[in-house]
């Protein structure tokens, strides 16, 4: 029987790997969210332009071409928006320790802290960022230790 590559890693390495996967997922979701916001704004602008071009009964051939061009642009922007929303759903369905998108920066820090074995309840956002940054960048033998042990050994 072959064992999975993940089971061959030490517990500390598994925690670090899990934290990196989680960080990757959160970053991908954040990028998709920014892209969705940009596309939503673009769709809104294009809808206004199309509505403006549709005004009036008589249009020249050039105005009809411009209207058709704007309609095509609007259709493409809506398709891109739909694709981004689908990707956002796919990112949240991945089998990591995240049940859905995080609402704010604090929730993101709490999820990462939990993955790394850090008690986040009594820590400020800045303290957590520092501890997470230190743990992810530490040599393998320090990653699995609770942050109190790591801090007292320094």
Q: How is the secondary structure organized here?
A:
Elements: H1 11-54, H2 61-93, H3 105-116, H4 125-137, H5 140-143, H6 147-153
Q: What do these coordinates show?
A:
By secondary structure, the protein is mainly α. It has a domain at 37-96. It is built from six helices and no strands. It has helices at residues 11-54, 61-93, 105-116, 125-137, 140-143, 147-153. Helix 1 (11-54) packs antiparallel against helix 2 and helix 3 packs across helix 4 (125-137). The radius of gyration is 24 Å and the shape is elongated.
Task: Provide key terms for this protein.
disordered C terminus; elongated; 154 residues; mainly alpha; single chain; 0% strand
Averaged pLDDT? 77
The quaternary structure here is single chain
| Mass-distribution shape | elongated
Say how many strands there are.
0
Q: What share of residues is helical?
A: over 70%
Query: Helical region count?
Result: 6
**What is the N-to-C order of secondary-structure elements (H for helix, E for strand)?**
HHHHHH
Distance between the termini: 42 Å
Outline the biggest β-sheet. Answer: none
In short:
The protein is mainly α and 154 residues long. It has a domain at 37-96. Helices cover 73% and strands 0% of the residues.
